[in-house]
Design a protein that fits this description.
Layout: H1 3-29, H2 36-55, H3 59-89
Helix pairs in contact: 1-2, 2-3
């Protein structure tokens, strides 16, 4: 198995794991929950999938992952900003 294929499988594994993490968090809370780790797995998996798509010269896949990465970064930013505001409010 070549390195690019391994990267693709690792990236897809991380990206897919986010749904498992979200499902477990929701089951635990008995309501829909999107944990911080969902966004981290989304970001890391999305970046690795973007790298994989670039190496495969797949512009459709590249655009899809690049737009997702922007959204994941924004959500992480909002969460960290909110946490900082909560700490400073105490």
């Amino acid at each position: 198995m070549n390195g690019l294929l391994i990267l693709g499988f690792v990236a897809q594994g991380l990206f897919g794991a986010r749904f498992f993490v979200q499902w477990l968090a929701s089951e635990k809370e008995k309501r829909s929950v999107v944990p911080f780790s969902f966004w981290i797995l989304s970001l890391v998996g999305g970046i690795l999938l973007f790298i994989y798509a670039t190496a495969r010269h797949d512009p459709v896949f590249m655009v899809g992952q690049a737009s997702g990465v922007f959204i994941y970064i924004r959500n992480i930013y909002f969460i960290l900003r909110e946490r900082k505001e909560i700490v400073h409010a105490k």
